[in-house]
Amino acid sequence: MSKPTIIIQKEDTLEAALVKLDANPRMQTLMIEENGKIIGTLTDGDVRRGLIKGLDKSNTVKDFMHLSFTFLIKGKYEPEKIKFIKENKIKIVPELHEDHSLSRLINFNEVKTILPIDAIIMAGGKGTRLMPLTENTPKPMLKIGEQPIMEYNVDLLKQFGISHLTISVKYLADQIKTYFGNGLEKEIDIQYVSEDVPLGTIGAVKQIKHFYNDYILVMNSDLLTNINLETMFKELNSKDADMIVATTDYKVQIPYGVIEAEGNQIKALKEKPTYTYYSNAGIYIFKKELVALIPDNSFFNATDLLEKLIELNKLVLHYPIKNYWLDIGKHVDFEKAQNDVKNINFK
């Protein structure tokens, strides 16, 4: 495979580097490689500073390059370094493999953070409650505003630096595959698994042969949300929990005075109280090793995995969503989404 055009060798001339910089005006950064490892960077600013010192285009790249550059390691969650990047307004940051070979360049104008997560979107359902809209169009491809429902979710994953996505498909799968392809336009690697028979809301995860990270996110394809995935992941990571489940609050107001009693003795009276319950929002993050608990080729829901973890005394958390969230399951939800998308920020 040929080298990416943003990589140059340290013994190359500045003139060769300028040709590559001119060919990559969007990036404005070259990665300096030696023996397959990234050892420095070269930007327009480095070139200007070198020329001011009296160097010229016949000098080699090593005379201009910046050695103390900021980088991230693929698969690691580095919040303090990401905070430094944001505070210092560093736009382009290389992500390196453990051996310091280049994984990708990250544009912090386009992402909020980098989470060490593989994502799976479950998009195989028929969406029968939305018939006839879903008669010839899979529910994830129904448009909310200017784009399909699921495209909002793919964009959400990209915002949080998630670069590996698998989409589980079944009903009218070709439409989804044709639209998203391999993810090149979204700058996110997209793979597909097919459910020959229905496998529930998480069973298809067992079909994935390789994961790139130690954490997995599973979400339904029919959600419209701007959930903060970083704060959700931080909660999981800080407590070393096995799984975290996004939840939405559901308030119930009792229209009468409620008596609290011990036996037949009244201890308190609450006038028309409101009780808050938390319901499953269809977004889960969990440790990769938990995939072993999902049976092969069997109908298995995320709630089945949740109950299994509780039975095994694993640490399972819930994360109340403070942002916007809507499950588009019925026509009334679909119409609500069309109005909400005009006023909610999903970027």
Automatic annotation (TrEMBL):
An annotated Gene Ontology molecular function: transferase activity
Keyword Aminoacyl-tRNA synthetase on entry: no
Keyword Cytoplasm: no
PROSITE patterns found in the cross-reference section: CBS
Positions of the CBS domain: 1-57
Transmembrane segments: none
Pfam families with a match to the protein in the record: NTP_transferase
Domain of life: Bacteria
Cited SUPFAM superfamilies: CBS-domain pair, Nucleotide-diphospho-sugar transferases
UniProt cross-references to CDD domains, sorted A to Z: NTP_transferase_like_2
InterPro entries per record: CBS_dom, CBS_dom_sf, Mannose-1P_guanyltransferase, NTP_transferase_dom, Nucleotide-diphossugar_trans
Keywords: CBS domain, Transferase
UniProt-recorded name of the protein: Nucleotidyltransferase
Native source species: Putridiphycobacter roseus
